[in-house]
Request: fold
Amino acid sequence: MNCARCGSPPETPSCVDCPTVALHPAHALPTDLDASDGKDGPAPIGGWLILAAVGLVISPFQIGYTVVGELLPLISGAQWELLTSPGSEAYRPGLAWLLLFEIVANGLLVAYTLVTCVAFFQRRRAAPRMMIAFWVAQLVLFLLDTVLVQFLVEAAPLPGPIALSVGVLKSVAWCAYYQCSIRVRRTFVR
Reply:
């Protein structure tokens, strides 16, 4: 492919009539738009999708750690007895159901994340929609958990406005990326 501006061949270190190497297509840096021309099959997972892939792989472990490290100890033995006995100081009506809901919801989120991981790395056409659903579900669970804990436990600390803003902005940004990115459209085509 010759230079669009001067017509010199790509082997030349710079264009004959163009003083800058950046104008020469053979020496230009690849961009998101150059990920694939559609002739060679799907584009590889690259760009911001690498960050998304790392987050997707880590998510089941992070969510699993929360369930196993924080929630399951609350429903075992003496802790559960304190939370479900009406005469106990730790008793709050509905708190036991909230804990069970969180365990089940997070377990389902881990399972969904694993299925999404498979679709993502197989570059399935459904993967972007699955990722959007993941981010929406994660945000809804976070907000629902915050509201229910505040309703059931009077002295529960509220997440700060920064934590809340980061959660919302992260979800909105990734959903917008999966909706608008050319790389996403060129990568998930199977």
In short: Helices lie at 48-71, 77-84, 95-121, 127-152, 161-180, 182-187. The CA atoms of residues 67 and 104 lie 9 Å apart. Residues 25-30, 32-37 have pLDDT under 50 and may be disordered. The radius of gyration is 25 Å.
